[in-house]
Amino acid sequence: MANDTVEWYKTLDKDFHWMLLAGFLAQMVDGALGMGYGVTSATILLSVGVSPAAISGSIHTAEMFAAVHRDTVITSLATLIRNYSKRWSSPGYWVRLQALCCLFSLEISMAILSARSLQPTH
Description:
Blueprint: H1 2-10, H2 16-33, H3 37-47, H4 52-118
Helix pairs in contact: 2-3, 3-4
């Protein structure tokens, strides 16, 4: 097993470690800012001498797998939210609607009272 691992490790491209580091750093930037994965990884890889064709392929492959993962997570979260929202949204909706009506009528009442107090007396 150990010999097979060493042999497999020797078959890796010489730029593999740089691509791994660039992907990690680019993902940190992308996670913090929500953008910039391609720019960050391309800049790092270009600075260490990786060819532009290899950079483009690696970035598009990484973004493809990231998009599949993101869509899977969003779909599962949407299912979870939909299940909970069916259970809780109806009572919550009516409570919010009643609070809105109460505040709106209170605001109108206060506006009428303040308008009456501002009217000149004869």
